[in-house]
Amino acid sequence: FMRVSGVWSQTQKMVAADRKAGDKFGFSVSRFNSSVSIGAPYQDYTTGVSNLASNAGAVYLFNKNGTWSQHQKLTTSDRQINDNFGYSVAMSAHDIVAGAPFDDHSSPSILLDAGSIYVFNPMPGNTWVQRQRLIASDAAASDNFGNAVAIQGTRIIAGAWNEDENTSGTPTLSSAGSAYVFEGCPYPGNHSFTDDPVAVCIG
Asked: Is the pLDDT of residue 197 over 70?
């Protein structure tokens, strides 16, 4: 949509190049300048009909050059059935952050639906690659960490709507919810994120 003289009007409709029934493309949306990231958390494939994993999810990156066109499809390196990657998405100049709130953790213990968020960065040629997977320091089954994400500068905040504990681990209140803050370092350098508030950036 574009606003002219205070009036919003539709200028284009965007769809995924490999759209399938039930993908739910448009479930989440984030824009930065002339790029937009769009989540499809029920998408099943990496490309076309390759590497089936039902509801693993995907994020589509569109760039505007006169009109909006699909630039890239993002999927995670450890994608599994029902991760729902792309349930949430946020982007900045150098980062695309997307949540997979139904991602299962396998190490150090099995935690079903604990949730994860993934950070992608641009490479030469403007191809985006996965750089990091982030999880909550006190991850537990069914927390759904990554149901919401936000990024500004070198700070990421991620929600976990079913998390039970406060900052000290007690008392337990079922599905009270929490939000987690991750600090990063300036791009490019050592542009990784951590939940350690005293982490030192080494560029």
From this structure: no
